[in-house]
Amino acid sequence: MYPIQQASTLAQVPSSTIRYYEKIQLIPAITRNAQGNRTFDDKDIEILNLIRCFRHLGMSIEDIRENLSHIHGAYEDVNTKAILFQHKEKLEEQIHILNSFIREIDDKIMA
User: Fold this and answer.
1) Mean pLDDT across the stretch 93-110?
2) Which of 13, 61, 79, 92 gets the most CB atoms within 10 Å of its CB?
3) Are 102 and 64 in contact (CB under 8 A)?
4) Phi/psi class of residue 27: alpha, beta or left (left: φ > 0; alpha: ψ in -120 to 50)?
5) Which Pfam families match (predicted)?
6) Choice between 17 and 90, residue whose per-residue pLDDT is larger
7) The 31-32 sheet, strands edge to edge
8) Rounded distance, CA 33 to CA 25, Å?
9) What is the 3-state secondary structure (H, E, C) of the chain?
10) Which residue has the higher pLDDT, 90 or 75?
11) Is 39 in contact with 2 (CB distance < 8 Å)?
C-alpha cells in the first residue's frame, strides 16, 4: 500500500490530479487507512498509469471513463491494447486529414 505522495511518484501524476480523478469518479474509490489517508495498491497505480497514457494520447476524460469501463480483470491487457489500437487509428485518420490540408495550403502558396 502506498500513500498518495508515493502513488503520485509511481504513476507520474500530481497528487492534486489523483484527488480530482477520485472526485469525478474517474478512478474507483480509494481505500483509506485508519487515519483517513488514501492508500493505493498496485492495481490503483496501474489504472493511474493507464489514465496518464490515455491523456497523453489526447483522450478526453469522458473517453477515458468509457474506455476504463470496458477494462475487466483477466482481459485487461487485451482490452487496453484494443483501446490503444482504436485510438491510434483515430489519430492516424486525423494526421491524414491534416496532411491533406497542408497539401492544399502548399498548392495555394505555390500558385
Assistant:
1) 90
2) 13
3) no
4) beta
5) MerR_1
6) 17
7) 2-3, 38-40, 31-32
8) 19
9) CEEHHHHHHHHCCCHHHHHHHHHCCCCCCCEECCCCCEEECHHHHHHHHHHHHHHHCCCCHHHHHHHHHCCCHHHHHHHHHHHHHHHHHHHHHHHHHHHHHHHHHHHHHHC
10) 90
11) yes
User: Could you identify the residue written with the cell 474507483?
Assistant: 28
Cell of 15: 497528487
51: buried, middle or exposed (CB in 10 Å: 19+, 13-18, 0-12)?
buried
Q: pTM, whole model, 2 decimals? A: 0.64
* Closest of 61, 44, 51, 62 to residue 84, by C-alpha: 51
Alpha carbons 83 and 94: distance in angstroms, whole number: 17
- Mean pLDDT of the 73-96 span: 70
Angle at 105 between CA 101 and CA 106, to 5 degrees: 115
Q: Are residues 58 and 90 in contact, defined by beta-carbon separation less than 8 angstroms?
A: no
